[in-house]
């Protein structure tokens, strides 16, 4: 029994996290594609980009049977979008996201990563370039990018509340921010203004735990942030409920206003709801943006 | 008897700690409940929010009160509170005299009394006092010794079955006067007054403090039973006439098997304010004769026992006369005076001797009977030798006969001279003779002879060497009047006069009755007088001890008759059952006129009950209370700080309440559902064996059969159901399929009741041993043996192997084989009546019986019928096409069976169709 686990073991542990996240994200994305692929649109010959041989990771639904039937190799038909989009993701990795009020519920961070990765997969399949905001992982296309994203998503941030990353934003790109937006709202305002300046439009998806919406607390309580930097003591937690909810409402309203001004879209998702619903909204919101 | 006065403390100074409680109040009040730390990302939204009011940061007053209570309970608990503490009087140093009554009245509480005395002696021992013991029923000069030594003697003190007597009390007084110096007295009284009681109290009070302990309930005793108007009268009396008292009286005796047991019980009520109550018990003579004592249930003392003696026994006396009844001359009947004398005290039998002897009466009276037929005479002789008393009276017929003339007749005590004699009559010399005083050896000794008894005629005894021994009464001239001789275990007694008033005035006098009494002809009623018993000696048979237990008398000395009646009880005369020459007499503790008088104590004497309340330490209860309060406090504190999950509680509560309230209704609803399901459609049923596999096969088989019936016939059954024999009603099902497994439980008696009712009312059970009947029906296979066990309590008629013309062979299909998965040979059904004949020209016998209640086979039909949901067969039958044929036949058997159950002997009746058609002229 060594005092600290060897590096290799920790690496394995970290690596072991990836496949489940990836697999779940793929699964989520697969369900999504099912709905989109049912419609074949004719007369879109100019959208055609290329046939490429089937690669591991492609589902059989993606095979172009007409092309493949001509030979032994199976091909996937890729389409070129009119304007190749770059989508930048920002997932709040801060401590406040690592919270679940109930052991049956996923942590907010978990849900955020899952959604982000699923969107990334969908976008990569659609031929878009996906990356992170900031300089860490610029948008690229290809399946490898998904793996890299998955890897980066598994790193936790030590900060108590996340601040959106707004550096190195590509003009005219799209952005998806997933966070609980409990932190400083001025930072968000600043980032969105900056993005709007560059012509970047995007989505704010606020992910909240049900308890954050309900505030089911009673009695003398010291509330602490997950990171432990902020605390507040009350003698009757139940008394605070209405005022807390009012503040939360105001916070949401502020975010929505911000989005309306900058041309972004805002949505609140609860971890108690199905991830599919959030993904559907995300995907449609992204499509709305392109159309 | 105040509540608080009886609480004392082991460490009262600890109670001062209660003063600190107000301080605790202040302390507790200042400290609010500990906060709960909770992670919550939304805390940033809370920053800056202030609490509304500041009161809640103090602990609520009721919580403080709760905690104060807990603290108070702990303090008081540690102070060692006790209920009924031993706050005994200050230690005294003077000697202690322990005075016991020692009579029967104390027997009931003897243990409590001794225990209390023991405790008092132990206390005295601790104080270093000396003590002495004085028992009033058996006074020995008291010797003061260390109290501890006296404690050992205490265990040997037993109550005696009598009360303190004048003599013993005088002896005790004497012994007390001889003690020098003062002493304190502890008097364990029986609660009854006795002669010299007041004197004793006064004497003792002069010497020191007197403390009396007595049972507050007072003594209860049972008076000797008396016999009145065919009922036994039992009277209970008591010393204190306070509230009403209900007692249970018990009559003990031997049952016919000879075992001692309670023969009868009856309640007795002593009303409030009365000292005695009466109960009447009516028992058949036979049972009454066996009663040997009465007692009061729950009163363990000699006074509560009343021994019954012969006075309750009614003797059976048979009266037989030789003379024909002369109508209208009743006063001349030889039996008239006997009847008058005996009727109040005996049961009289009339009739022919041959009829009476088997009834085995105690006494047979032959009034003026001379000769008897030889057979009767022999029977009578046997009866006497077995212990009977034969009482003969002379009379004209006897005097005229030759009976016992030449030699002594076995049934006559003496030889008689012919003719007899008459004195004092109109044609004779001399005066009528009077009776001579009875000799000391005579059973009549001591009886007063009235002067007006005269004898004018008598039969004369032949002088004989043995005559003198046999005379028990004689006339003044020395001629015998009554003679007797033993015969075997019995006696023959002859009155030399007639039983009516023709020959003497003896039957008219009271002496006649008393003589009969002495001869034990009549049963004694009431207590005998002193005079009646003068001169007799009575031997104790069984005596009572102080607790009212009957004990063998052993070799106790006999008691003179007059003492038995009159003397006070004592060591020489113990209560019990005494045996005299002809009868048994009981001496009870209580006399018919006894009264129980409660002891009267002067005001200077302190009187206490026997029960000293147990010292109960209360510390445990209080500390437990404190723990409980603290537990409540924990819950309250949790609830206050929001740590108690409020959401789950109503749910759990609701669940519990819901479950509790649902259960009974659910069961009833289930029953109804079962009945509705079974009756709204025709349903085939199988017995649930408990073997899951077999049950599944049964179900699948009956589904297959139901489907077949549905497709092929107008019988359209619903899904089959499994039947639990222990629970379900069977009446709904026409056919019950019962597969036999080795390990199925034998149904209960109630289940068999239901099964038999089912069979009687036209149900049918198809028993299937499922073993291909390998060893012949029921013989040796395990399932066959189990079938026998299972079917044994069933009302199954005689069976036969299914005959070729049984109606089962043609109720729907024409069949001769009844295969299932196996094609076994025999299927057994109810046997045809033996007289069934084949009618000329008909293919079948005329079998118009009902439906066979059972069909027994071993072909595993259910497996052949079994289908899954899609209708595919579940189990293979045979091989290839022939196998399918066998399955088809199995289905046909099933169809025939159900048709048979539903249509009965309809197909059998069709035998008659040609005959009917013929008669109709077709």
From TrEMBL, chain B:
InterPro entries: Aerotolerance_reg_N, Class_I_gatase-like, Double_TM_dom, DUF4159. Keywords: Membrane, Transmembrane, Transmembrane helix. The chain crosses the membrane at residues 6-28, 61-83, 618-639. Residues 7-81 form the Aerotolerance regulator N-terminal domain. Residues 684-902 form the DUF4159 domain. The keyword Transmembrane applies. It holds the Pfam family DUF4159. It comes from the Bacteria. This is DUF4159 domain-containing protein. It comes from Thalassovita aquimarina.
């Amino acid at each position: 029994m060594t005092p600290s686990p060897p590096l290799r073991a920790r690496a394995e542990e970290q690596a072991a996290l990836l496949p489940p996240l990836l697999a779940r994200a793929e699964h989520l994305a697969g369900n999504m594609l099912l709905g989109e692929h049912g419609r074949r649109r004719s007369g879109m010959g100019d959208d055609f980009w290329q046939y490429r041989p089937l690669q591991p990771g492609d589902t059989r639904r993606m095979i172009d049977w007409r092309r493949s039937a001509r030979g032994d190799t199976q091909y996937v038909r890729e389409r070129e979008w009119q304007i190749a989009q770059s989508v930048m993701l920002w997932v709040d990795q801060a401590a406040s996201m690592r919270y679940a009020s109930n052991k049956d519920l996923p942590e907010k961070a978990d849900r955020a990563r899952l959604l982000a990765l699923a969107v990334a997969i969908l976008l990569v399949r659609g031929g878009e370039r996906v990356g992170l905001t900031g300089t860490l992982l610029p948008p690229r296309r290809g399946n490898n990018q998904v793996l890299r994203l998955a890897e980066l998503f598994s790193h936790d941030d030590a900060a108590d509340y996340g601040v959106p990353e707004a550096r190195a934003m590509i003009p005219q790109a799209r952005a998806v921010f997933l966070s609980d937006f409990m932190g400083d709202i001025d930072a968000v305002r600043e980032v969105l203004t900056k993005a709007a300046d560059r012509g970047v439009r995007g989505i704010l998806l606020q992910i909240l735990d049900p308890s954050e919406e309900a505030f089911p607390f009673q009695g003398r309580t010291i509330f602490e942030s997950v990171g432990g930097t902020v605390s507040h003591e009350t003698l009757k937690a139940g008394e605070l409920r209405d005022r807390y909810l009012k503040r939360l409402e105001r916070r949401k309203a502020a975010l929505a206003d911000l989005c309306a001004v900058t041309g972004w879209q805002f949505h609140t998702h609860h971890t108690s709801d199905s991830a599919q619903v959030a993904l559907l909204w995300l995907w449609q919101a992204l499509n709305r943006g392109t159309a | 008897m105040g509540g608080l006065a009886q609480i004392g403390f082991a460490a009262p100074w600890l109670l001062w700690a209660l003063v600190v409680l107000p301080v605790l109040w202040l302390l507790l009040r200042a400290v609010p409940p500990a906060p709960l730390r909770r992670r919550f990302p939304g805390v940033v939204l809370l920053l800056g929010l202030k609490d509304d009011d500041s009161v809640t940061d103090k602990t609520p007053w009721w919580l403080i009160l709760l905690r104060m209570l807990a603290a108070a309970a702990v303090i008081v608990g540690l102070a060692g509170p006790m209920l009924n503490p031993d706050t005994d009087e200050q230690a005294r140093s003077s000697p202690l005299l322990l005075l016991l009554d020692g009579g029967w009245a104390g027997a009931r509480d003897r243990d409590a009394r001794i225990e209390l005395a023991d405790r008092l002696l132990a206390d005295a021992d601790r104080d270093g006092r000396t003590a002495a013991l004085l028992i009033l029923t058996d006074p020995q000069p008291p010797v003061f010794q260390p109290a501890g030594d006296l404690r050992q003697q205490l265990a040997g003190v037993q109550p005696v079955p009598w009360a303190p007597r004048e003599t013993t009390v005088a002896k005790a007084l004497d012994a007390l006067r001889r003690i020098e110096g003062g002493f304190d007295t502890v008097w364990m009284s029986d609660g009854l007054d006795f002669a010299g009681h007041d004197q004793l109290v006064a004497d003792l009070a002069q010497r020191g403090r007197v403390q009396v302990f007595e049972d507050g309930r007072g003594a209860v005793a049972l008076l000797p039973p008396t016999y009145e108007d065919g009922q036994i009268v039992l009277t209970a009396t008591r010393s204190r006439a306070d509230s009403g008292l209900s007692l249970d009286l018990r009559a003990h005796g031997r049952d016919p098997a000879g075992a001692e047991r309670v023969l009868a019980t009856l309640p007795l009520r002593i009303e409030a304010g009365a000292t005695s109550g009466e109960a009447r018990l009516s028992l058949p003579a036979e049972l009454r004769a066996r009663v040997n004592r009465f007692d009061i249930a729950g009163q363990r003392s000699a006074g509560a026992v009343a021994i019954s003696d012969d006075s309750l026994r009614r003797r059976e006396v048979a009266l037989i006369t030789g003379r024909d009844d002369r109508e209208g001359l009743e006063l001349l009947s030889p039996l008239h005076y006997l009847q008058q004398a005996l009727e109040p005290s005996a049961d009289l039998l009339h009739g022919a001797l041959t009829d009476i002897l088997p009834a085995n009466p105690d006494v047979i009276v032959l009034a003026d009977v001379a000769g008897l037929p030889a057979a009767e005479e022999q029977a009578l002789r046997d009866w006497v030798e077995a212990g009977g008393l034969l009482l003969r009276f002379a009379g004209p017929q006897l005097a005229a006969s030759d009976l016992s003339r030449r030699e002594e007749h076995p049934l006559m005590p003496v030889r008689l001279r012919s003719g007899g004699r008459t004195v004092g009559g109109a044609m004779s010399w001399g005066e009528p003779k009077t009776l001579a005083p009875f000799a000391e050896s005579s059973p009549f000794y001591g009886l007063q002879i009235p002067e007006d008894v005269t004898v004018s005629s008598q039969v004369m005894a032949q002088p004989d060497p043995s005559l003198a021994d046999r005379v028990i009464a004689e006339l003044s001239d020395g001629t015998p009047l009554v003679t007797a001789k033993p015969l075997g275990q019995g006696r023959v007694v002859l009155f030399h006069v007639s039983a009516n008033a023709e020959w003497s005035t003896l039957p008219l006098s009271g002496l006649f009755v008393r003589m009969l009494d002495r001869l034990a002809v009549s049963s004694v009623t009431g207590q005998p007088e002193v005079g009646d018993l003068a001169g007799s000696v009575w031997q104790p048979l069984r005596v009572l001890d102080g607790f009212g237990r009957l004990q063998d008398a052993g070799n106790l000395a006999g008691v003179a008759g007059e003492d038995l009646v009159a003397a006070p009880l004592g060591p020489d005369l113990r209560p019990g059952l005494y045996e005299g020459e002809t009868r048994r007499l009981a001496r009870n503790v209580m006399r018919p006129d006894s009264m129980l008088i409660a002891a009267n104590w002067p005001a200077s004497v302190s009187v206490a009950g026997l029960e000293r309340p147990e010292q109960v330490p209360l510390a445990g209860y209080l500390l437990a209370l404190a723990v409980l309060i603290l537990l409540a406090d924990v819950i309250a504190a949790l609830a206050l700080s929001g740590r108690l999950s409020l959401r789950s509680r109503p749910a759990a509560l609701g669940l519990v309440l819901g479950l509790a309230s649902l259960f009974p209704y659910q069961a009833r609803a289930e029953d109804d559902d079962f009945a509705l399901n079974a009756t709204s459609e025709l349903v085939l049923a199988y017995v649930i064996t408990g073997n899951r596999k077999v049950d599944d096969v049964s179900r699948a088989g009956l589904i297959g059969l139901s489907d077949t019936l549905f497709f092929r016939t107008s019988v359209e059954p619903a899904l089959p159901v499994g039947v639990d024999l222990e629970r379900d009603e069977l009446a709904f099902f026409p056919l019950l399929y019962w597969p036999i497994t080795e390990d199925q439980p034998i149904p209960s008696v109630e289940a068999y009741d239901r099964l038999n009712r089912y069979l009687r009312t036209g149900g049918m059970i198809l028993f299937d041993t499922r073993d291909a009947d390998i060893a012949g029906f029921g013989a040796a296979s395990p399932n066959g043996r189990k079938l026998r066990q299972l079917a044994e309590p069933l009302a199954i008629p005689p069976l036969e192997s299914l005959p070729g013309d049984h109606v089962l062979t043609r109720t729907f299909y024409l069949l001769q084989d009844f295969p299932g998965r196996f094609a076994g040979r025999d299927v057994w059904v109810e046997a045809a009546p033996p007289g069934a004949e084949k009618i000329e020209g008909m293919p079948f016998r005329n079998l118009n019986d009902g439906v066979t209640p059972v069909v027994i086979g071993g072909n595993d039909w259910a497996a052949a019928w079994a289908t899954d949901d899609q209708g595919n067969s579940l189990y293979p039958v045979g091989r290839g096409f022939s196998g399918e044929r066998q399955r088809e036949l199995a289905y046909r058997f099933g169809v025939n069976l159900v048709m048979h159950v539903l249509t009965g002997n309809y197909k059998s009746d069709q035998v008659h169709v040609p005959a009917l058609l013929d008669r109709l002229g077709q």
